[in-house]
Amino acid sequence: MKSTYFLYTFFATCMTLFSIQLAFEKSPSTQLEAKMKKAIEQAMAVNDFQLVPVETSILLNAEASWETSQTYIYQIYFNEEVQAFAYLGQANSMKDVFDYLIIVDQELQILKSKVLIYREQHGQQIGSQRWLKQFIGMTSEDTIELGKSIQAISGATISATSMTEATQKALNQLSYLKSNNLLGNE
C-alpha cells in the first residue's frame, strides 16, 4: 500500500515538474526578451514596435525536419504593418549554448545578426559587431561557409562554426516558411 502511494506521489510530482518546464520553454526568458527588443530597436531605428510570434505546427516542424524547442520566429510590426522578421535561436559553443538573434527584412535579407547571451569564457569574439556584420545582406540564396564567405576567428572555431551554420539554417527555415505562405506577411 505504501509503495503504491509513493509511486503515485512520485508520478504526480514528475508530471508537475515536467509541466512547469514546458511552460518555461514556450517563451524566451525576460532577460533574453529585453536584449532582443533592444537589438531590434537599434537595427530598425524604432522604439514603438510589436513582436507577434509566428506559429508553426508540430506537423510542419516534422515535415520541415527542424527542431524548434529553442527557436522563436516573430513578425516585427510598426506602422501597423509587418516590416521585418526576427529569428531567435540557440547554437552550441564549446561546452554550452549561446542565444542569437537574426533580423531579416521582408525579402529575408539579413539586416542584423547579434549574439545576445554568450555563456562561456572562450569564443566570445563571435559577439563582436565587426565579425557579425559579415552576415548583413545575406539571404538563403547565399552559401554561408566559415573560411569562405565568413572569416574564421582564431580561438573561437566552434562558436564561429555554430553561428555560421545557425545563420544558414535560420535563413533556410525562414525561406521555407515564406515559400509556404506561413510567415504571415503575404
Can you tell me about this structure?
- Helices cover 39% and strands 22% of the residues.
- The radius of gyration is 19 Å and the shape is globular.
- Mean pLDDT is 83; it is low at 5-26.
- The chain has helices at 2-25, 30-44, 58-64, 129-132, 157-179, and strands spanning 50-53, 72-78, 81-92, 97-105, 110-118.
- It has a five-stranded antiparallel beta sheet with strand order 1-2-3-4-5.
- The longest helix has 24 residues, at 2-25.
- The protein has one domain (29-179).
- With 186 residues, it is an alpha+beta fold.
Quick structural summary:
The protein has 186 residues and is α+β, with helices and mostly antiparallel strands.
Distinctive features:
single chain; 186 residues; alpha+beta; five-stranded antiparallel sheet; 5 helices; globular
Q: Give start-end ranges of low-pLDDT stretches.
A: 5-26
- What value does the Rg take, in angstroms? 19 Å
Q: Summarize the main sheet.
A: 5 strands, antiparallel
Strand arrangement, major sheet: 1-2-3-4-5
Count the E strands.
5
Distance between the termini: 61 Å
Q: Tell me the overall shape.
A: globular
Tell me what portion of residues adopts beta-strand conformation. Answer: 15-25%
Topology as a string of helices (H) and strands (E)? HHEHEEEEHH
Number of domains in the coordinates? Answer: 1
Number of helices: 5
Oligomeric state of the chains in view: single chain
